[in-house]
Each structure stands twice: as structure tokens, then as C-alpha cells.
Design the sequence.
């Protein structure tokens, strides 16, 4: 699978990984396609679904952080082995490096909002 290029007369283009776009398609209840077009009349519903998923993810990430803080406070009373501390540090590092759904769809949401405002289409496909 190659990168997908998103274009619109309303905004500058950008590229997205096919796996990321597949997750976008799942959220908006549309089948994955390597090329296509969203017309202005469908953009409001797409924006609404993507924003709802971003909000859901934000709540989920906040609850995970809260549990981690609680676990950390409880863990201060418990002695950990060197291996357990290393594993915990590695897990924390991976969590910080993780790219959230919100970060991945930000350029798409910006393009959709601009396209909706100007009443123009958003197109995507495999670049030439």
C-alpha cells in the first residue's frame, strides 16, 4: 500500500498512511477506498463523526493518565525490582511516543472544515 494524497481547492494537500485512513473510514462508517471524493453535502456528517471520536479518545486518554497517577502513588509504597522499574519506564516511553487518532486526523479535519466553508470537495488517492 502506498501513501494517500488528500487535496481540496480549499486547503493545501497532505499525505496519509493507508492504515490511518482505514481507521478514519471505520469511524465514519464508510468502506475503505484508495481514491475518492467527499462532496460538500456529506462533509458535516463526516466532521461530526471524527470530532466525536477525537472527544472519545481524549476522555479515554485522560482516564488512563488518571489510573497511572493513582498506580504511581500506590506504587511509591511498594518496592520494585530493577527489571520491573525498567519495564515500567519502557511502557511510559512508548505511551509518550504514541501518536493519537486526534493527531493523525487533524489535517483531514482542517481540510474538511475549510472545504465545507467554501462548499468544495475533498479528494484523495494514490499520487501519480
Sequence:
Amino acid at each position: 500500500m502506498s501513501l494517500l494524497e488528500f487535496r481540496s481547492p480549499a486547503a493545501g494537500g497532505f499525505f496519509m498512511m493507508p492504515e490511518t485512513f482505514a481507521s478514519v473510514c471505520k469511524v465514519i462508517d464508510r468502506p475503505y477506498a484508495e481514491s475518492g471524493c467527499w462532496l460538500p453535502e456529506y462533509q458535516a456528517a463526516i466532521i461530526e463523526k471524527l470530532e466525536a471520536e477525537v472527544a472519545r479518545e481524549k476522555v479515554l486518554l485522560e482516564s488512563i493518565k488518571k489510573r497511572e497517577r493513582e498506580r504511581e502513588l500506590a506504587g511509591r509504597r511498594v518496592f520494585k525490582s530493577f527489571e520491573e522499574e525498567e519495564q515500567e519506564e519502557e511502557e511510559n516511553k512508548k505511551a509518550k511516543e504514541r501518536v493519537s487518532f486526534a493527531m493523525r486526523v487533524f489535517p483531514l479535519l482542517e481540510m474538511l472544515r475549510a472545504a465545507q466553508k467554501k462548499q468544495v470537495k475533498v479528494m484523495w488517492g494514490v499520487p501519480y
In short: Residues 4-125 form one domain.
